[in-house]
Amino acid sequence: MYLHAGNNKILRSSRIIGIFDLDTSSRGDDTKEYLRAAEKNGLAESAAEELPKSFILYEDEDGKTARVMFSQISTSALVSRINGEFK
What we know:
alpha+beta; single chain; about 30% helix; two-stranded antiparallel ribbon; 3 helices
């Protein structure tokens, strides 16, 4: 199964580690630093044309590297898509 994260970005749902609300989860210093490091190291990309509302942590195809995808779609909508409510 796949998840459309927005802006024509598709992720394999079996590779998703977690979906996080950007406003609430980025308050912590550790999360802020992780997201900055991911961007700096080229491990982050955006599926958002507008300000992102969430980010998705997922495994790269090699299964060893965690990557970040920023999305303008809310966490609840993304989770609903994974659960099949938006077919």
